[in-house]
Specification:
64 residues; mainly alpha
Length: 64
């Protein structure tokens, strides 16, 4: 759900005849992707904070 490929895969399932067999609704689809979205958001924020801080400090020390 957090990526366009993930959304396409879920939407394909949601609109296929298979959705009724596995009882997939839009709400269930969002719930299934929730943990992935939260996890990727937290890791992304952590990576940006750590990487940006370590890359920005030497630049700031040089003075631009």
């Amino acid at each position: 759900m957090a990526t366009s490929d993930g959304q396409a895969a879920f939407l394909f399932l949601l609109t296929s005849a298979l959705a009724t067999l596995i009882r997939l609704s839009y709400g269930r689809m969002v719930w299934m992707a929730h943990s992935y979205t939260v996890t990727m958001t937290l890791w992304g924020l952590l990576a940006v904070y750590v990487v940006l801080q370590s890359v920005t400090e030497p630049i700031m020390d040089k003075g631009s």
